[in-house]
Amino acid sequence: MTNQRFVSLWFRYLLTDWLTLKRPELKNLSFVIAAPVRNRVVVVAANSLAEAAGVHTGMALADANAIIPGLEVVSHVSGQEAKLLNALGEWCIRYSPQVAIDFPEGLILDISGCAHLWGGEREYLKEIVTRLISKGYHVRGAMADTVGTAWAVARYGKVRPIIAPGEQEQALYPLPPAALRLEAVVAERLLKLGFHTIKSFIHTGRTALRRRFGQDFILKLDQALGNEDEPLQLLQPIEPYAERLPCLEPIRTREGIALAIKELLERLCKRLYTDKKGILTAVLKCYRIDGGMVQVQIGSNHPANQVMRLFKLFELKIETIKPKLGIELFTLEAPKVGETDTEQEFLWSPEGCGLADKGLAELLDTLANKIGADKIHRYLPEERHWPEQSIRLASSLDEQPATVWRKDRPRPSLLLPRPEKIEVSSILPDNPPMLFIYKGVRHIIKKADDAERIERSWWEDQGQHRDYYVVEDEEGRRYWVFRSGHYNDERAGWYLHGFFA
């Protein structure tokens, strides 16, 4: 019996999830990824919506189009699965130094001795799966003593994703033969013979099983049970982007610190440029001879590997570095990097290209490192009815909206996070207010637009609608107010929701 523990991760919609992240407009569409195979075009991957309609991997594209007229089709890029799994595997190295690609849709992690760092096996598996789901991937995970059992439970398990040590045989009992990672022909033969679960044949004599189904069948069964070792082709951990600069003499001056930063940036940016990567986050650590350590951090909205641009960001923070008796060692780390655009692409870009403008990114970097990144926000539209739910924070400067901003009706420049109750005097039934009182101040309404009715989303409980008005008081200030529900409803009330410039 082995003392090892493994986690199997299954990305059921690997390619289509990745494409949806790249092209958010596909989120609510049925689509497939297709490629030519033996003189016909077949479905390589189908998203969950297409699959729910009856489309599946391996189906002829013509049949898929017959099932879903107007089906969105995207051409398959050869090698994309391996590229994605390699990137996901490198990301998972934070949870275990031993990660292997399980082509074509999975990863295997040897987690022996790792789970306790996250508070136990349950918390460990939950952390990994939750983080991957939050990134936009459908993923299932399972943990067991063997790779084979973890693989089987991740894909076919119905109840527990964590199999206790030594219980792999019982966990395999209710699963179908395909859960043993058998060739499709062997799995079909077992089903035709009436072996619908692994329990129905697991105790059959090995000689008879080997004679009928072959040696590979016995090997897969023994590997799942833990009777045979299963070697893994592990990914090599990424060499971190970090540089060290020891000092012959302790550094105590601003000029000396600046020179050290430039030297470290030149070394690090040379590596990054070669790898076609740029810094998103960089951390400078200054180790003093008195045993103390001072740390400063910068961030960039776009991957950057230009020494002077990054130095200007660090230059803003040199004053916060207190060398005291002197700094004997500098280290520069780039824990977060990204792919950089090629220079050729910029040759074809027009001047002043909005969010893609490097000048804008550099301005935002400067502001963020002066006042804090948490003070700068970018918002994207959401397809929700209630105005306070119709926007969300963008995760980056490059993130693209899944829908468009609404422009057919006026919207305030400042929207309150939650509507605030106001006292109103109005002419019933459907007129805008004649005056309202907000925070003890009376506002006499001089002008008002017609009502805009916004209903509650259909999937929410049956609640009250809102009738919004743009109103202007006697001092020319404009507000966005609404009545919740009909005027004769006991639950009806008036609220202030925003301010116009």
From TrEMBL:
<dbReference type="GO" id="GO:0006281">
    <property type="term" value="P:DNA repair"/>
</dbReference>
<keyword id="KW-0227">DNA damage</keyword>
<dbReference type="InterPro" id="IPR043502">
    <property type="entry name" value="DNA/RNA_pol_sf"/>
</dbReference>
<dbReference type="InterPro" id="IPR050356">
    <property type="entry name" value="SulA_CellDiv_inhibitor"/>
</dbReference>
<protein>
    <submittedName>
        <fullName>DNA polymerase Y family protein</fullName>
    </submittedName>
</protein>
<feature type="domain" description="UmuC">
    <location>
        <begin position="23"/>
        <end position="74"/>
    </location>
</feature>
<dbReference type="InterPro" id="IPR001126">
    <property type="entry name" value="UmuC"/>
</dbReference>
<dbReference type="Pfam" id="PF00817">
    <property type="entry name" value="IMS"/>
</dbReference>
